[in-house]
Input
Amino acid sequence: MKITRVVVHRLSVPLPRPVRTARHDHAHADTVVVEMRTDQGLVGSGYCFAFGAHRARALAALVEDLVPLWEGRDPAAARAHFAAAWRAINFVGHAGVAMMALAALDTACWDLAARAAGLPLVRYLGGERTRVPTYASAGLWLDYTLDELLAEAARFRAQGHRAMKLRIGRPRPAEDVERVRRVREALGPDVGLLVDVNQGWDEATAIRVGRELEAFDLYWLEEPLPYQDLEGCARVAAALTVPVATGETDYGSQAIRRHLELRAADVLMPDLQRMGGVSGFLDAATLCRAWHQPVSSHLFTEASCHLLAAVENGLILEHMPWWEALYTEPLTVADGHVLVPDRPGLGVDLAPAALARFRV
Ligand SMILES: [Mg+2]
Output
């Protein structure tokens, strides 16, 4: 089997509501979708995205630049194509748009390889889990009123979620503590509650407010500090009993290794596109296992559910349905789990009408 053609789609996918965190304010996910086609009629897909149409144009340019490394090749050699692309981007760097572009192509290639084998990606990778614990992430934003927070928390529960993530990092930390308290009271003790600071604190604030938040039985405290302050994050993690999660903003599995070496956090959450796709994510998960640490995910729910189901140390999946509309059917959430699609490859198919609707 040969990859005969790679089609690149540039899309603007509207978010259900503008996203506001301590770091973000966006209304669209400017997305680059890769459709990888073969001489046998199979199609694999992957995507990367940025916030900002011009940045997405830069992403698409990098994807187009790398396409020749896959065209004419056998999709089963996904690791070899990843290695070739890794060498190709050496000069521009193993971070930023180059890694994100590599991720879309690498993911599409793994999707194809598993489709060619007739196996869901989780089983192609040697795993057997059919569902993974998940948490609702598309909501509980920083700019919500208290009433909006409580209404959305109830909605997430009704959708089958048993864990959810609240964004914190408001100008007055006392407001964060109060919002966490009210949401925890409304949820009761049996629902997992995660909080995400989106790098909004300094070390002293993280330790002080983190200690106050320990009263609310949090599942984890995410990205308390600027993402490159690994030593500071390690001190925060050591000072608190609540588990600290980080890693989503860093690039490449070697960055995950540095987090592990410094014991920067209790849970690493590599981002599929910043790892360079399935190949790099699997490397990151293996490193986490070598350090006896669990691994979570960041965005990219369609591929990440297979990866967390496949690795032994997969902990919990971020459920972010922003790209759901690109596919013919959504992932199923039931009783706090995402059901890993039991169809070949990623088990999700792009919807041509959606590609047409969101095209820019
Ligand atoms: Mg986060």
Observations:
- The pocket of magnesium ion is lined by residues 196, 198, 222-223, 248 (CB under 6 Å).
- The mean pLDDT is 97.
